[in-house]
């Protein structure tokens, strides 16, 4: 298909102000309309709007010679030997149809209805004008290409030499046009192509010192198979070579920054950075430190937000492994995509696959650590494949039979009871024992009340630095309220609360007004704030108040139901509701 066929369609050159008449109208009526509209033709349609014939001024002359009445229905003398074309067909096709059939008019149809007409005058005045525009367009395109373009005829005479060629070889178009190419470039590829008839692709050449180019040349044949021209493109790759050097420099910068980032991660995620006085946390750190330098698989369990990924990163940083720490959340990726994420895939492995394939998390973590978060949500069929990888140390990308060895240390984490899932046939027992060679249990934050203040201070410091907000004073009551909150979201929730308090702080001060309302409603500010922290009566009252609040919320204010849950008389409940102003 030629460029003109792509660019110019019949709709671009057709006339839309044509005349239509019904087949039962008279010749006189049609002739009057043609004269009034300065048209040489009229299209004849039936009652359904279907094109039946064309009537022209030439037909009028024939009728007059034969002495036919002008009141005769026009359909009797219309030309019914019709040729038509569609609006999306090429303008060149319209021209060829009219030349081949020696016709001066070509109706344009769309969905069986006439929407325009192409005439010989139209072709002459519009099509060839469009062709001139096209050649001007092509000339502008070639002149603005970065590649030098040279076109020679079959004798090697230069017929086209664009601006990039002028710049590249310092030879003007005015000087070289219509001259033999060999006069300027005796070893020109175009001349070789004209002699051999074979194309040449991507040959390196240095026409002048400091200029490196890649040349390609192709022969052009006519419809009879004879070479009529040769076209060469010379691409200046001097800038590309300079860019390659720049990319090498940038690569070194990235490697430096990556190393600095790893050092930053190492300082942030190490066992000394884990805050905790709680015995369970201290025991967990001790176990993690012992296994860090081994290749043993580790299973970290605990509720969401207890710091499982922090422990996993700390184990990796202490392991001495030089590869990447790669994390994947098994519950966040659909089961049918999890395999491709873990093992990768080759080109064409499935619909929607990236053209060049994709490396999997196992390969990316080779020599490092692969952290499988929420392992309890991994589909059973995927568990079988995981077990095979752990046994053999070999993976296969989707769509490939090539075995790839992997040396990724596995650390898994879950907030679910895997032994319960095993009994329910939702988790493989053999995979569990492969993953849980060493098991680390992290306690919830509500069981680590002694750590809340230290964790809060750590987050106050981190968020203040991150947000550029200086915190100068934190009211002591804030710590006591935070300590007595139940923290269903664990450490993650505490960090989010601290971030909220910092960004909403006034003049760098944090007080009880900074604490979210839902925490204040759950924990009364008066709790454990007396001078005597061992005042048993106050402690009992606080526990009663908090328990009654939780139960009343749970039963949605139903006092009879609340008394039953609390195992007290309804009258006692009423008394305590009044006493604690609940």
Automatic annotation (TrEMBL):
One term of GO molecular function: sequence-specific DNA binding
Matches recorded under NCBIfam families: sensory_box, TF_PrdR
Membrane-crossing segments per the record: none
Domain PAC per the UniProt entry, residue ranges: 198-249
The keyword Transcription regulation belongs to this UniProt entry's keyword annotation: yes
SMART domains membership: AAA, CBS, PAS
KW Membrane (keyword) present: no
UniProtKB keywords: ATP-binding, CBS domain, Nucleotide-binding, Transcription, Transcription regulation
Domain PAS: 134-185
UniProt protein name: PAS modulated sigma54 specific transcriptional regulator, Fis family
Biological process terms in GO annotation: regulation of DNA-templated transcription
InterPro entries: AAA+_ATPase, AAA_lid_NorR, CBS_dom, CBS_dom_sf, Homeodomain-like_sf, HTH_Fis, P-loop_NTPase, PAS
UniProt xrefs under Pfam families: AAA_lid_14 (PF25601), CBS (PF00571), HTH_8 (PF02954), PAS_4 (PF08448), Sigma54_activat (PF00158)
Domain Sigma-54 factor interaction: residue ranges: 274-503
Domain of life: Bacteria
CBS domain boundaries: 14-72, 78-133
SUPFAM superfamilies reported in the protein's UniProt record: CBS-domain pair, Homeodomain-like, P-loop containing nucleoside triphosphate hydrolases, PYP-like sensor domain (PAS domain)
